[in-house]
Amino acid sequence: MAADKQETQDVVAVILKDHRTMEDLFRRMRSVEADRADALAKFSALLVAHGEAEESEVYGALKRFKDVDNAEVEHGTKEHAEGNEALLALLEVAEVGSDAWDERLEDLVKAVTHHLDEEERTILNDTRENVPDERRAELGAAFLKERERQLAADCGSVENVRAIVRG
């Protein structure tokens, strides 16, 4: 039973699960039949909580492992900032589904999809191969705790995203 708990908290598995949820929310935001505003609100909260939790609880710890590429970890932080900027641009469009909204959605999809792909190929593969299971479980638990704290604080609000982007 303990192995199941550890597996569900493995930081790599937890991050990948969020990535798949983000991709699902992209599909919903693109669909004229879905509640696109609701999908955006959920995506905004998840993207911010996920990025903040990675930066505060995971990335720093990973830099201490010699076979995890520090440059890729630093690059991941830069890509979080780019994703947040693209998110803010979309959140600031008044009319969901307008041409401007669709254009900014595609900018967001491009920025975030690029990051997810790169993070999965570099940082997460390095972590899977070089970080012991027990440490990955600890990082997963810390990531989830911070992610939940962020979500409870309405981290995806346009005001909060604006504050993050503008520093």
Q: Could you please describe the fold and organization of this structure?
A:
With 167 residues, this protein is mainly α. It is built from seven helices and no strands. Helix 3 (36-62) packs across helix 6. The protein is elongated. The protein starts with a helix and ends with a helix. Mean pLDDT is 93; it is low at 1-7.
Q: Could you say which structural class the secondary elements and strand pairing correspond to?
A: mainly alpha
Overall residue-averaged pLDDT value: 93
Shape: elongated
Report the total helices: 7
Distance between the termini: 44 Å
Return the string of H and E elements: HHHHHHH
As a percent range, the share of helical residues equals over 70%
Main sheet overview:
none
Unreliable segments of 5+ consecutive residues: 1-7
